[in-house]
Amino acid sequence: MPPLNIAIIGSGIAGLLAARILREQHQVTIYERTPSANETGAAINIGPNGIAILESVGLDRARARAIPVARTIAYNKAGAVTADTTVDYRREFGADWLFFHRADLRDELLRLATAPSEEVGVMGCPARVRWGVGVVGCGSGGGQGDIENGEVVLSTGEVVSADLVVAADGIKSTLRPLVLPAVPNIHPIPAGSCIFRFTLTRAQAHDALGYLPAALDRTQPGCITTVFAFDATERRVVIYPCRDFEVLNFAVIVPDAMLWRSTAAKLATSNWSAEADKEELVEHFRDFPDWVGDYLRAAPTPGLRVWRLHHTPPLPSYIAGRTVLIGDAAHAMTPHQGQGGTQAIEDAEAFRLFLGEHVTAEAVPALLRDLDRVRRPRASRIQVNNVQARGRKSAQEVHRFRRFNWTYPGVLAEVRRLNAGEGVGEEGGAVGCGYGSGGDAAEGQMDHEEEREWKL
C-alpha cells in the first residue's frame, strides 16, 4: 500500500514519539511553531507503562541520561518518615520507572523520529521537521469539514492537506476547539494550585546543605522524595535527580489561595507563568523541615518561575474525521500522579494501529475510531483519578492508583479485548477502567461525586 501523508502538529513527547512510530511506514512531517528544539522544562518521570513503550522503539538510556528509580520516601511537614519503600519496578511492572531531564528525553525522541533509518534500525524514511511553523486554523473553508478532511492552515499561510492530522499541540491546542466545535468548556481551566520549579547542580546542592545529598549519590538507587503538608493547603515538595545524577529537580506545589498578591497579580496577567519570588517560596514552607528550607533558599535567581496549574475535563471525543488529539491537547492533567508525559507516550503508541498492509487513506477514520475507544476511556479515568489524588491525606492514598496507571498492554491488545466484547481493561485484564458507580468509561462520563470533585 502507498504510504500515508501524515501531518503532526507539535514536537513534544507525544508528537515526536508518534513520528517515530509512523515513520516506519508513512511520510511524516512535523510542524513546530518554535524555531528550534531547545527545551526549557525541568525534569520528568516516566512510569513503567511508558518506559516499556519507549524501549520497544529503541530508547537509548545512556544518550537520554536516564536514572532508574528504586526507592520512594515520603515525609510529613514535621519531618517524620511516613513511607519508605524500595521496589524492583521491572520485576513488578515489566519495565523500569525512569527519571529524565525533559531536554534529554526530547532530544532522544527527536533522534528516534528524524535520524537515518540505519541509525535507529527501522525501515521507512525519517520524519521531517519544519521549525518555526505552527498551525493557525483548519482548511481554506474554515469549517468542521476541513478538519475532518485533514486540512490545516499553517502560520505561513499554506494550506496543508494530509491523510492523517495528529494534533499534538499541547495544553493550549489550536486544534482542540476545531475538532470539538460544539463542545463547551474544553479550554484549560485553573486547577486551584501552582507549581514552583527549579533545579540545582551537584555543586549547588552541596553548597545548600554543606554535603552532597543522598539523592545525587550514584552508588545509591534512584530515589524520589516527597514532603507532604497533609493539611488543608495540599502543599508538597517533590525532589528527584535527573541527568545521570548531575542535577536535582524540585517541583513545589502551593494552592493559589496562598500566593502573595504580587505573584497572583503577575499570574493573572500572564495566566500561565511568572518570575517567582524566592522569599515567598521559602515563606510558604517555614513549617516544613529545616532541610527543605535550605534547598528552597538555594533556588537560583533569576530563573525561578511559578506556573499556574491547568487541566482540561475529560473530552467526549478525541477525533474528527482524519484528525486526532493526543497528549495535553487531548487530556491535560496536573502533575499529582506524574502521568501527563506517560499518557502522551501511550497515545503515541496507539499509532501502531496504522502499521500494516491494511492501512489505506480510506481506512484512517475507522482506525482513529479504534484509537479513540481505547485511549479516551483510560486517559479520562486517569484525569479523574488525578483530581482525586490531589487532596489525599497519606502517601498511600496519593499512590493508590499506581497499579492502574502503570499497567497497560498497548493498543493492539486493547482493541482485541474490545472486539472480543470486553471493555477496555475490564476485570481480569491488564488495566482497569471505569468511572465508578454509574459511570460509563466508554463514553468518558463521570459520576456525580467525581464531577463535583472535578469542579472544586
TrEMBL record:
Which InterPro entries does this UniProt record tie to the protein? FAD-bd (IPR002938), FAD-dep_Monooxygenase_BioMet (IPR050493), FAD/NAD-bd_sf (IPR036188)
Cite the Gene3D superfamilies for this sequence: FAD/NAD(P)-binding domain
The signal sequence is 1-18
Q: Does the record bear Protease in its keywords?
A: no
Positions with biased composition (Basic and acidic residues): 445-456
* Pfam families documented for this protein: FAD_binding_3
Molecular function (GO) terms listed?
FAD binding; monooxygenase activity
Q: Where is this region: Disordered?
A: 435-456
According to the entry, every stretch annotated as the FAD-binding domain falls at 6-382
Keyword tags: FAD, Flavoprotein, Monooxygenase, Oxidoreductase, Signal
Instruction: Write down the SUPFAM superfamilies for this protein, in alphabetical order.
Output: FAD-linked reductases, C-terminal domain, FAD/NAD(P)-binding domain
- Family the entry assigns: Belongs to the paxM FAD-dependent monooxygenase family.
Q: What PANTHER family does the record point to?
A: FAD-BINDING DOMAIN-CONTAINING PROTEIN (PTHR13789:SF314), MONOOXYGENASE (PTHR13789)
Q: What is this protein called?
A: FAD-binding domain-containing protein
